[in-house]
Fold these 2 entries.
Entry 1:
Amino acid sequence: MIVLRRQTRINNLQPMTSDSAHVLWRTLTTAPPLPSPEPEEKAPLRAIDLAKKIRQEKREEERTTKGIKPTATPLQKRVSELKQFTQQLQNVHPNVLAKHLHKTMLFQNRDVIVLNKPYGVSVKDHGGGTCITAVLPILAKMMDLKVDSELQPCLGLEKEVTGTLLLARNQEAVDNIVYLHRHNQIQRKYWAITVGVPVPSEGVIDIPLIEREIAGTQHHFKMGLSPMFRLNETGEGVSRIRAHRQAESAVTKYRVLDSRAGCSLVELEPLTGTRSCWLLYCHGQLSCFEVWDCITSRCSFLKYYKLPENVLGKLGLEKSKTRNLTLHLHARQMVLPGTTSQPEIRVSCPMPKYFTKALQRLNLIFPDEKEPN
């Protein structure tokens, strides 16, 4: 390639011969094309912009050093709030859990103790996290109970259910509670937040339950409804069918305490000892379901219902964060019948913070807070 050099003085230019012109022409025609011009570069960063960037980086570094997290979005704050309310006691030292149970104790006498069970803590050991049964010896020491006194949980609650948990202090109390429970003499009332409004607003449901085997990649068992009546082929009237031999009797009394914008606060009173019947009824019979329906608490691969957009908005969540929503089922009240030697025992348990927050977000009102008619 021939490089032409511009002379600084015009009078130094030499006349071009024919051979030189031929060489120049051949060079120009055979030379590779010049590269396309590069796009114009962005304007250089101004000093004021650079100063702002440095200040921002320094501020973030100071926050990290001091342990202050960057400003979170409203969604991140809401998810963090739910985790704080529901995961505080799931993996703590046994002494910490025992101290919390002792501090929040609801009732005690010489025969029984009623605890305020927190969310996410199992009553019995299922192979994960701290359970209440494991810390009962520590709790007994904190209460200065006798050496031969052994606390035993009765009428246990599911891991995701909060509220009144009954403990017996001696074997005689255990036998008495078993007798009362078998004859349906212990009254228990639960409060649940549902999506949908039960129709009618008050009534009694009597549908047996049966445990069914669910095949598939994740083999498990699940409680389901086993109705004793079916709709006729004509669509008019019902016919009684033979009850399944393995079906368990399940009767639940319910009433709507408050409803607003498609959500309800429902009181459930199981009249039989069948577990999880009120959860199944909420989904299958009352035409509504729990904010997080945990029908088979033994399974860790639960399916979550798709909540309506308006409900998610009120709860401050998005579809991608639905798994952070907790089961809203609370054992509100327990009543043990009196005897000749002691009066009736009636214990009410305050609502957990995440439950009251959900009520506030959904504009649901406690019965005692409603304005008189």
Entry 2:
Amino acid sequence: MDPETPTLVVSASVRDAIVERARDGRPREICGVLGGEFGDERSRVRSQYPAANVAETPRTRYRIDPERQLSIFDRLEERGEEIVGFYHSHPTGPPRPSATDAAKATWPDRSYLIASLEPFELGSWRWRSGGGGGARSNDEDEASISDGDDAGASCVAGNGDEGTFERERLVLE
């Protein structure tokens, strides 16, 4: 894997909470915000903040409730944490961003953690706005917890920026 590949460090307790919530929430996608220490090359998740999925079709899409999102951002600030990224589940799909995920991405350089349930796998991605428009893939074994497809997603984001999801190294501690 390229040494410049960004890394997301997630504690086992945060991972377990997200996976349990994803299993309990199926067949709907679940979603939330990741808090902790954000860095361009390495981010560390200290906490996860669940949010209601208010998408019109929650079995195949997610949308974080806007009021809850603002409340979470306030809570992060109170706790001295930064927005590391966002998470959601794919109850029956792979742990990679869908074209819809890419079209709705609005937080450049933040992590998007995806929990796939069938089979179980976690994948982590960073949205890179502008420059390139092509998917960038990295070594699969370091980018997710188990084997899976390493395809990326590229398109125009919800904020009008062209961009790409870039696979990032996922480290559990």
